Amino acid sequence: VKDTGPAPGTSRFQKAEAPQPRILRRNPDSLHPRAPSHSRDLFKRGFRQKGYIPMSVYLTPYKLGDYVDIKVNAAVHKGMPHKFYHGKTGRVWNVTKRAVGVELLKQVNGRYIKKRLHVRVEHVKPSRCHEAFLRRCKENDEARHKAHLAGEPVPVTKRQPKGPRTEGFMLENVSMETITAIPYDILKEGVQM
Fold it and tell me: What's the pLDDT tens digit per position in 9-50?
């Protein structure tokens, strides 16, 4: 058999074509933007909370330094934060026309990284985490003012841990009675065969 040489249009130094990789078919439902993030139940709205978004969401004023909770509304896809930030609390560092800038801490391994992100107002709500502190500050200021007017020393406003209970109950006309177990004697009880 005679070698006729390389095929027409090719050189003898050209490599053979590699086999084509198989194309894996994916389920079209898994291409949905919410499907890969596994947030079907995470972003679900509460009982009787579905439907239109009330106007109060858009009319809530946000100022710099306010504490806000990030709570994603799945009906609004624009300005939606990543699912990691759902349920996190941060402070407002910027206010724009339709969104607020939220600054919060993210734990990465053994350290906390300060993160800044812009979130639409539909996905945030004012936080109540600061209410108790502000109420306590106001009560302490009032107590100090009253003591100053009365000429008394400044009261202790530091919170104290709850101590052991001092109240209790008393028992009357009760005598102590000791109860012990009676050892079982097999000879006294008798053995029936």
Answer: 666 666 667 677 776 666 666 666 556 678 888 999 999 989
Rg (CA), the chain: 37
DSSP symbol at 103: E
- The answer to whether residues 143 and 133 touch, using CB atoms and an 8 Å cutoff, is no
Q: By the 8 A CB rule, do 91 and 63 touch?
A: no
Strand partners of residue 70? 124
In the chain, what is the straight-line distance between the N-terminal and C-terminal CA atoms, in Å?
108
pLDDT score of 192 = 66
Strand 67-70 with 111-120, pairing: unpaired
Under a CB-based contact definition with an 8 Å cutoff, are residues 71 and 40 in contact? no
* Mean of all residue pLDDT scores within the chain: 87
Q: What is the DSSP secondary structure assignment for residue 101, as one 8-state letter?
A: E
Dihedrals φ, ψ of 4, to 5°?
-85, -5
Share of the chain above pLDDT 90, in %: 62
Tell me the helix, strand and coil percentages in the chain, rounded to 5.
20, 20, 65
Which residues does residue 104 pair with via DSSP β-bridges, in sequence order? 115
